[in-house]
Amino acid sequence: MRRFSTQKIVLFALLGTILVIILLMGLQDRPQREITPITELIVTEQPPAVEEDAPAEEAAAVVETTDAEAVPAEALEEEVAPEEEAATEEATAQTAEPVAEAAQSRTALFFAVLPATPPIPTDNPQTPEKVELGKMLFFEPRLSQSSVIACSTCHNLGLGGTDRIPTSLGHDFQTGGRNAPTVLNAAFFNQQFWDGRAESLEEQAQGPIQAGVEMAMPPDLAVERLKSIKGYLPYFEAAFPDEEDPITFDNIVKAIAAFERTLITPNDPLDRYLLGDEDALSPLAKKGMETFEAVNCVACHNGPMLSSGFLMRFRHGEDSGRMTITGDPADEFLFRVPTLRNLPLTAPYFHDGSAGTIEEAINIMANVQLNKELTDEEVQAISAFLNSLIGQQPEVTIPILPAN
Amino acid sequence: MRRFSTQKIVLFALLGTILVIILLMGLQDRPQREITPITELIVTEQPPAVEEDAPAEEAAAVVETTDAEAVPAEALEEEVAPEEEAATEEATAQTAEPVAEAAQSRTALFFAVLPATPPIPTDNPQTPEKVELGKMLFFEPRLSQSSVIACSTCHNLGLGGTDRIPTSLGHDFQTGGRNAPTVLNAAFFNQQFWDGRAESLEEQAQGPIQAGVEMAMPPDLAVERLKSIKGYLPYFEAAFPDEEDPITFDNIVKAIAAFERTLITPNDPLDRYLLGDEDALSPLAKKGMETFEAVNCVACHNGPMLSSGFLMRFRHGEDSGRMTITGDPADEFLFRVPTLRNLPLTAPYFHDGSAGTIEEAINIMANVQLNKELTDEEVQAISAFLNSLIGQQPEVTIPILPAN
Predict the structure, then answer these.
(1) What is the DSSP pairing of strand A334-336 with strand A311-313?
(2) Which residue of B has its CA nearest to A391?
(3) Residue A397's closest chain B neighbor by CA?
(4) Strands (E), A235-392
(5) Average pLDDT, stretch B245-274?
(6) Are B398 and A169 inside 8 Å of each other by CB?
(7) ipTM value of the model?
(8) Percentage of residues of chain B with pLDDT beyond 90
(9) In contact, A263 and A185? CB cutoff 8 Å
C-alpha cells in the first residue's frame, strides 16, 4: 500500500464505491428475477382439482380394463386417504393456487412445476443443524451392522439417488428383491416404499436400517454405536436442543428425513417449459408429451412428480406388492406409481428392475396398463419426452464424520 | 433505495469505500500470513539429509535388536532404492531447501511440513479434466463386478480415507485380511500397499479393481462397461486428448491416480507448529512429541508423512507381509511404515486392524519394535501428540456420474 499516493487511494476508493453500489443493486435485483417465479408458481402436494381428481378416476378405470380382479373402490380410497390427510395436516409455506402460466398449451395441463421445497411435517421442522446431522447420518456406514453400508450406498447421489442395479445388494450381499426407489424428490410422496407401507420419510428411514438384507442394524445397537462415537453428541444436541438424551432412534430418522427433504431437483426442461420457455423441450419431446397424454399415461403419471403418488395395480413379475404386507388379496400387485422425474438417471425400471431401458418400460406399461400397442414412432417420442426429465442434481459435499 | 436522500447515499457510499479499503487490506495481508509460508517452506519427498539418512540407519539397528533374523543390508537398500530413483525422476515444482523455521526447537527436527502438492509423475501430468474424470471413477461403483463397490467404498473420504473396520469387506462381503490404508496423502509414498508391491498410485489402483475379494472386475470388462456408458467418452477425450481410443484400463487408473494426488491434508497442528505457531500443539502434545523422539519412534516415523515410506519388519500376527508376494524369507513380516498424518481418523491400526486405539497401538509398537515398556504418562503424552495430527480434509463434492 505504501507505494500508492493519497490521490491514487482516493481514486481507488471512489472506484470501490461505484463497485459496491453496482453490487448492491445487482443483489437487490437478482432474487426478483430468478427465485420469485418458482415460488409464485409453486404447487403443493394438494394439486388443483382439474389435475388430480380426473386422473384418479381415470386411473381406476384403467385398472378395471386391464385387471380381471377389479380393485374395490374402498381400497383405492383407503390408499388415497392418508395423502389427503397429510396434505391438510402438514404445514407448508406454499399457496395452492392453480398454475396459470403452466397452461402453456393444452398438452401441459396434467403436469406442474416441481415445488422448490417439499411439505415439512409439523413434528419435524427443518433446521440447518438437523439437516447437517441428517446428511452425516445419511452417509454413515456405521449405522449398519457391518459398518460398510450407508443410506447413500443404495441411494447414491451420484447415480440419481439409486444404485442402478435391478435389485439392491445389502448385508452379506443379500438382496430384498426390489429396486431401490430414488431418494430424489421422495419428500413429495406421502407414501414411501414400492408398497407404500410408510407414510413419511421418517417412517421409511427406519426400514432399511433394520432390514436383515439391507443394513441389518437393530435400533438399540444403532443408538449404542452412535453414542460410542463421542463426536456425534454435539451434533445431536444442536439438532435437538432442549432434549436431555438426544441420541435416539427417533431422532436419527428425523434427521435423515430432514436431509432427504433437501434433495430436490428443480429446473428440468419440463419445468422450464411449464414456466414459459417454449424451447426447453425439443419438438420430438413435445410430441412425446402429447402422445404421453393422448394414450393416457397421465392417468397415473401426473402432477409435479409425474406420479399421482397413489398405489396402482401392476401385474408384472412374481412380486405381489402391497399384499406382501397386508395379506389382503385386494392389495395384490398394488405398487406406488413411481415418479418420472430424473428417469434417465434411475434405470433399471419397475419394482423388480426388470426393464433396462426407458423404451422397454414404455412398451411394457402400454401393454400391461393401457392394453395398447404403441408404434415405434410413439415410443421414440415418449422416450424423448421422458429423457428430458433430468433436473438440477443436489450439490452435496461429502460430510466428514466424527472419528470417535 | 427511493426512500433515502442524496445526503444519505453519499454517507453510505463513503462507508462502503472504507469497508472496501479495509477488505482490500485484509486480502493483501492474508496470503502472506497463511499461504506463503507453506509454499516457501515446502519440503519435497527428498528430505534433507539430516532427517532421512540418520533414521534409516537407526531403523536398521532397531530391526536388528528386535528381530533374531536380521534383515540383510542389501534387502533394505533394495527397498530404499526405488524411493531415491523416483525422487530424482519425478518432476516436482517444489524446492528441496531445508526448512529453517521448522527447527522451532530441537524436538521438531525429525518432522517436516506436509507439502501442498505431491510429486507428479512425468508420464501422468495433472490436468483439471483428468482430475475431474478421476474423481468420477473413484466414486464409480460400476467399476466393480457387482456394480456396488467403488474405490470410495473402502477409501471413504468422510472417514479419513479408510473404512474404519479392521479388514475391508469387498465382493460378496469377502475380506482380503488387511486394513485399508488411507488414501489421504498416499501420493507422497513411493511404495503402495502394506507390502509395498506397487510403486505408484497408478499401479496401486489396478489392484483393488481386479482383486476377487475387492471389486472383482477384470480389466477388459471394466473397459467394456465404461464404453457402454456413452456419457463417459467426452470425459475421457478431455482427459486424454489426441488419443484415438481413450477408454483404456491404463487411462482409468491414470485418472484415478491424478484425482488421488489432490487428496492432501495440509495445516494440521504439527504443521502450524512447524511454521511458527508455538501454541498449535498443547503442552501435553509437545511433551508427547519429545517422548516420541526420545524413545526413537522417529526412527521410522519421520519426515513430512511421519513415515520414512520404507518397508520395516513388524512381527505382529500371522500375516508375513512382503513375503506373501516375493516368497523370499528375507521379506518375512516386512510392511510399509504407515503415515501418522490423520491418525485419529483412521482407526483401527496396523496391517490387520488389530489395534483399536492409538494408546493400544503405541504400547504394542514400543514393545515389539523398540523393546520398551512405556509409562502410562508417556503413552498419554504421545497419544496427545498423535491426536493432533488431523489435517484439513479435502472438500469433495459428489460427482454426478453419467447415466448411460
Answers:
(1) antiparallel
(2) B400
(3) B397
(4) 311-313, 334-336
(5) 98
(6) no
(7) 0.75
(8) 73
(9) yes
